Amino acid sequence: xxxxLAIALVLxxxxxxxxxxxxxxxxRSLENGNLALNRRLAHLEQALSGLTNGSxxxxxxxxxMETHLRELRDGQDxxxxxxxxxxxxxxxxxxxxxGASVEDLITNCxxxxxxxxxxxxxxxxxxxxxxxxxx
Length: 135
Known about the structure:
This protein has 4 helices and no strands. The chain is about 90% helix and about 0% strand. By secondary structure, it is mainly α. The protein has a domain at about 90-135.
């Protein structure tokens, strides 16, 4: 019986050795997989950080561009107001292009007869050219 017991113990030890070897290989494989996943995670974190920084920079650029656009629009509005104030003949020209007479210009735009006649001569031909050309 002692021989049988000794053989059983040797077989049991062999089974444990095989199982231990198998589990060591499995643990090593899992550790390698874990290392690969950690490297991938670090790479993704770095990429996300770069994207976050880039989007923050882009947001700042958009805000600066919106501010610049607003300033340009305000400047354009001021120029338009100044242009209307410094170009008193604009309304008269538009009236002539709409078909107004010299008398209409004198009455409505407070122009002298010579100013009204000059504007009418210069811009009535534009209206007639457009009528001939079908514009």
